Amino acid sequence: MSSSYERIFDIPIGPQHPALKEPAMLRLKVDGEHVVGVDLDVSYNHRGIEKAAEYRTYIQNLYLIERICGICNVAQTLTYCLAVESLHGKEIPPRARFLRIIAEEISRINSHLLWLGVAAHEIGFDTFFMHVWLDREITLGLMEALSGNRITSSYNVIGGVRRDVTDELLARIRKGLDELEPRVKRYREIVLTDRSILKRTQGVGLLSPADAVATSAVGPTLRASGIRSDVRADDPYSSHDQVPFNVVASDGCDAHARILVRLDEILESIQMCRYCVQKLPSGPILQRLLRRTPPGEGLSRVEAPRGELFHYILSDGSDKPYRCKVSTPTLANLPALVRMLTSKGKYVVNIADVPVILASIDPCFSCAARVEKSGGV
Amino acid sequence: MKAEDLLSALSASEGIQEMKVLSERRVMVVSSREAYRSVVKCLAELGFNHVVAITGVDMGSHIDLLLHLGTSLMATVRVKLDPSAPKIASVSDILPGAEMRERELHDLLGVEFEGRPQLARFMVSEDWPTGVFPLRKSFVPSSPEPRRSNP
Amino acid sequence: MGITDWAFRKSPWILHFNTGSCNGCDIEIFATLTPKYDVERLGALLKGSPRHADVLVVSGPVTRQASGRILRIYEQMPEPKKVVAVGTCCISGGVFSNGGKGPCYNVYPGLDSIIPVDAYVPGCPPKPEAIYGGLAKVVKKVGGEKK
Description:
The complex is a heterotrimer of chains A (377), B (151) and C (147).
Chain A: H1 4-7, E1 9-13, E2 25-31, E3 34-41, H2 49-52, H3 58-66, H4 73-88, H5 94-123, H6 126-147, E4 156-157, E5 160-161, H7 167-193, H8 195-201, H9 209-214, H10 219-223, H11 231-234, H12 255-278, E6 296-304, E7 307-315, E8 323-327, H13 329-340, H14 354-360
Antiparallel strand pairs in A: 1-2, 2-3, 4-5, 6-7, 7-8
Helix pairs in contact in A: 3-4, 4-5, 5-6, 5-12, 5-14, 6-7, 7-12
Chain B: H1 3-10, E1 16-23, E2 26-31, H2 36-45, E3 51-58, E4 63-69, E5 74-81, E6 87-89, H3 99-109, E7 112-114
Parallel strand pairs in B: 2-5, 6-7
Antiparallel strand pairs in B: 1-2, 3-4, 4-5
Chain C: H1 3-10, E1 14-18, H2 24-33, E2 55-59, H3 64-76, E3 82-86, H4 88-92, H5 94-97, E4 119-121, H6 128-141
Parallel strand pairs in C: 1-2, 2-3, 3-4
């Protein structure tokens, strides 16, 4: 009679694996087809950015912080700029704040569409992946027109934004959003009705509301478990309190609910962009600030596409930060991921579900790069 | 909850050395090292059970540990630690979201968290020297030497 | 030009490995596979195993942890093989190495300090057309053509 201890063995997934877009090691403990535990190692992306930030000036750090994650680079620079600006204590012009929201929401649409394509690819629905990424080119074109680059935009600078917009550009943004909206609605229909997507995502990756709150999950992972928490509503920044929007949440608690939450967030972001384009105030786009930041502590947080992003900056009065700390949403969601990947009682996780569950939290291990190795909770 | 309400709710707690409202949604609470766990428990009971981050700063004469909590109003608990032996009680049983962040701080700054199973120490990479903590001010970063083969 | 060279030029199968990138270059590499840029015109397919691949497309500044793995992947690929380094980080460590002034401690100064590289595609991130061009140039070099 074999003991259950002998039946459990390890399957390593990664760091190089077709299901993974970034290097990470998931050491799955399996009992037959069922996953009973997981050891995560996401340290492959650890670059030592927080230390390097102490040796560069605040302006040089903008370009370093931006490259913590290429997909949420607008959110990273926005949080950094908000933290530094809170130390200076000066008001940012209203036009700059609205332009920041436009850039942020276009980047959110970009990120969610990217994620939708990747999730479709993980399910095995490559046709869907190709269609979604073709539509993503619309928003990449808008980002390029707005800032000059498709991905790493460097649009936010300390004190405001880098480039102004003309009326033609605003018309182009409006046109692009009008083109995109019916297609997103069509994708939403597909996700709700297509049998292969439903079979592979419903009931998979369950995270109960109690677990979501206990593990401090953030972003769509938290909102798909029914908790209506969004930094733009709870702790508004950069004029979000003047732009009306709905916090999107769903009670499904599974991977399918997370897909729907992100799709609905794309539709909300389209509405927010339209509002900002229409009500854009006139005025300057940049408030000139001193090169040396006054001493103090700046804390800021922003709703990045993946969840709550937090920056802490400690300034000693010179032109280089004394300490720059970044806390990213993927790092916050890792304990929740471990819970989702563990079979317990009636909830069973098959090996084939693992890529779908991993993709459903929208992992960005380059953001979570400050963790070395994490064991199962 | 408003910032002033939080201050009055916490004023009865022992071990709090200082409380300050930094801005509309930011509150700073300075606690002694011994009272850290009870302050965190008190905050968790008041509804602050969402861990935003745990920051460690090497200030030279001491190490500052900052625990940031809260979704709408952010409360930061600050504790001063001795840099030669930075030890503090772990709060990962009260707040499971703190578990991985404490491990990160342990690897990067050398802070030891008592009262939790010490998982096998795995620094930033397998060949990273023990006892070297990258975020301490004494560590100067440099690029690694090129390599052409695995050992 | 022998049969292996002809097969290489007509269908270079790609393996992509991310050595610690910010994902900017990875997104552009995947965008090269999508209908607008369509690298499949070159015969390129994204494969999952190093044993099946002809061209190794690498992105990201090589972190210490990833350096051992990329060496092992390179050794596992059968000859003839080519390596394309995509992005400024892969070429020189980019913004992370910063030319040695306040570098990130976990990052090598470029992929060619670890494995030999055949093509460098600069950019942060390079546009999909540039990645496509880099791949096309590398494939053309196989079989004795000088250009």
